[in-house]
Design goal:
The complex is a heterodimer. By secondary structure, chain A is an all-alpha fold. Chain A is built from 10 helices and no strands. Chain A folds into 2 domains: 106 residues, Rna Polymerase Sigma Factor, Chain: A (Orthogonal Bundle), CATH 1.10.1740; 79 residues, Arc Repressor Mutant, subunit A (Orthogonal Bundle), CATH 1.10.10. Classes of the chains: A mainly alpha, B mainly alpha. The interface between A and B is large, with 45 and 32 residues.
Chain lengths: 197, 156
């Protein structure tokens, strides 16, 4: 699957979508929706919430198509909207309660798929699922998406120190998780949201 | 321990690279339908919240005036104890609880603030920002009315 940040959109298709052409907008949806859902699921780890956030992200994308300047690939712009939407969801008391409750009800391991990946990747996926949403987002944005601490701090509206401490905390907990015995007793997400720093 | 971090990062990147394609559960048309349904739900909730707030304002002001009228009737020195007992036995509205209306209005204002923050990032002077500001002003107005009614009620 093509990564969201690598997705480019031909200028004519973009112009047609901006003009409100339904076919072009549908084609744009087909082009970006799967990769957008993938990154949202990676950050949120909650199926229904991820679908709602996908809808919010794509609606915002269509509403602000005129604001896209073409300075970076189209997917990078969509990714910034998606991350922003995820952070808004993390800040929502209702969503935080939902995630906390679900962490007790659902086994995060059930959300991971053994789709031909090696066992070490499945372990990493499980460990990632057990991080708090904020810590997981910082780790993913920095390590995988290649964001800088400054970009993360700006997006979270926090300091660079916040980003660095969350990353260090995330790495430490991932290491602990990966070295821990397989049978973990509790499924409580590790770390807390916006907990200082 | 330092060598573990590059290994961890490499695993995370491999995890990303081997991810299965995520098929969205709806297409473009489905997304528009979902959005329309959600907007309808939001509209119903806002209407309900405004209606509740307006009804509470009316009830609280009515109760305040009712209490004011009752306080205005000075008991005559010759009034007998039976009539005063009859009056005290009548039911009275002392206070209507506005907690739910206030909480709902605060939730709505907070959600509008979130949406405004996003809208201002993309188009600081856009129509969406104006629409959200208008909605926010209406909600704040309702909120102020409820708070004012509470204050009036408390003072009587």
């Amino acid at each position: 699957m093509q990564r969201l940040a690598e997705i480019e959109v031909p200028a004519d298709e973009l112009a047609a979508a901006r003009a409100g052409d339904v076919q072009a907008r549908g084609a744009l949806f087909e082009r970006v929706a799967p990769a957008t859902l993938a990154i949202i699921r990676r950050l949120v780890r909650h199926g229904a919430m991820a679908e709602d956030l996908l809808q919010d992200t794509l609606i915002a994308m269509y509403e602000h198509l005129d604001d896209f300047r073409g300075e970076a690939p189209f997917g990078v712009w969509v990714r910034s909207i998606a991350v922003s939407r995820c952070l808004m969801a993390f800040r929502s008391p209702w969503n935080r309660a939902r995630v906390a409750i679900d962490s007790w009800i659902e086994d995060p391991r059930a959300a991971t798929e053994s789709d031909g990946r090696t066992s070490d990747l499945i372990d990493v996926d499980r460990a990632l699922a057990r991080l708090s949403p904020v810590t997981r987002t910082v780790v993913w944005l920095y390590d995988v998406e290649g964001w800088s601490h400054e970009e993360i701090a700006q997006t979270f509206e926090r300091t660079v120190s916040f980003s660095k401490s969350q990353l260090a905390r995330g790495h430490a907990r991932l290491r602990t998780e990966l070295h821990a015995p397989r049978a973990m007793a509790l499924n409580i997400p590790l770390g807390s949201e916006f907990d200082g720093h | 321990m330092d060598t573990e971090i590059p290994e961890l990062v490499a695993k995370l990147r491999r995890l990303d690279a081997t991810g299965t394609p995520a098929a969205p559960p709806f297409d473009y048309q489905g997304m528009l339908e979902r959005r329309a349904a959600r907007n309808a739900r939001t509209h119903r909730r806002q209407t309900l919240a405004r209606g509740t707030a307006a009804a509470l304002v009316v009830a609280l002001i009515g109760a305040s005036f009712w209490r004011l009228d009752n306080h205005g009737e000075m008991p005559s020195p010759g009034s007998d104890t039976a009539s005063s007992a009859q009056v005290s036995a009548e039911p009275r509205i002392v206070r209507a609880d506005t907690y739910l209306a206030v909480a709902e209005l605060e939730d709505h204002i907070a959600s509008i603030d979130d949406a405004l923050n996003v809208a201002r990032v993309y188009a600081p002077r856009g129509a969406e920002v104006a629409r959200l500001e208008q909605t926010r002003a209406e909600l704040v107005d309702s909120y102020a009315r409820v708070r004012y009614a509470e204050m009036v009620s408390a003072n009587f």
